[in-house]
Specification:
Length: 279
């Protein structure tokens, strides 16, 4: 079976930067190394790091003194970073620069008196981190969800870096009709825009699509959603073991996209499995 791989499948620059940094720190450190939360949303990559001695903790309170703590790609809550500082822990900041931008804007705009609205998943580590930098009222609007009434004249709208652009536009447009002043700052990562455009184009050219990445990865789920709107025969898998030959009956060409947190070796494994299936 022919497999066409999207140009932007696999690790983005920010994720690769953080993963490389973790391995660099782990290779040079004589003390234990842990990441504050999963370094990226990909179970296979996290397990491979664990096998190489890099642990994962959910809170600074779990970390023993003498341990090096690496902040994951999605960033961390300000109070956790402060707690690490107060305990004298060695902290390596692996936050993606694209994530630092909405953090900085949340702090700045809330300080200027804006009610900050973030379009994204309130349970996501990135959004939690962004909200922690705001110095005033905040609201999270879930993509596709209702837009709550906000008691404020001045509203600033930010986006989770992996947000679908159309959702950001929807929220900004609705708020613009309700409030005297709306400041929209597009904090969607450039890689996200490019990756989503590539996925949409690919979905229009193939008989089926496989999107590879962690089930807990927001940007991977969004890719699958976008592809499914164009090509209903779209499946989201973490590894080649989930592929079912029956999905591809009658297919000659399958498209393959992957989230920004999906390692190259996982993408290659899925591609090899798909190529072994009869057309």
């Amino acid at each position: 079976m022919e497999v066409r791989i999207a140009k932007t499948a696999g690790f983005c620059w920010g994720v690769r930067r953080t993963v490389d940094r973790v391995m660099e720190v782990a290779g040079a450190a004589s003390n234990p190394v842990v990441t504050l939360g999963p370094i990226i949303h990909n179970p296979q990559a996290v397990e491979r790091m664990r096998a190489q001695g890099v642990g994962t903790v959910q809170a600074v309170a779990e970390v023993e003194r003498g341990t090096t703590v690496v902040v994951r790609t999605h960033g961390a809550i300000r109070s956790e970073l402060q707690a690490a500082k107060e305990r004298g822990l060695s902290v390596v900041d692996g936050t993606c620069p694209y994530v630092k931008y909405p953090q900085a804007m949340a702090r700045r705009l809330s300080g200027e008196g804006y009610h900050v609205v973030v379009v994204g998943d309130a349970a996501h580590a990135e959004v939690k981190g962004v909200l922690s930098y705001a110095e005033g009222p905040c609201t999270v609007v879930k993509p596709g969800g209702p837009i709550p009434e906000i008691d404020a004249k001045r509203v600033a709208v930010l986006a989770q870096t992996t947000c679908i652009g159309a959702e950001f536009e929807r929220v900004v447009g609705a708020l613009a009709l309700r409030h005297r002043e709306v400041r929209a700052v597009n904090t969607i990562c450039n890689d996200t825009d490019e990756r989503q455009a590539d996925a949409r184009q690919l979905a229009s050219e193939v008989d089926a699509v496989v999107v590879v990445g962690g089930k807990n990865s927001a940007n991977t789920r969004h890719l699958a959603e976008l592809c499914r709107q164009i090509q209903p025969r779209t499946w989201h898998v973490e590894t080649e073991e989930e592929l079912q030959p029956g999905w591809f009956e009658g297919c000659k060409v399958v498209g393959l996209s992957a989230g920004a947190s999906t390692p190259d070796w996982v993408v290659e494994g899925v591609a090899a499995r798909l190529r072994s299936l009869p057309a």
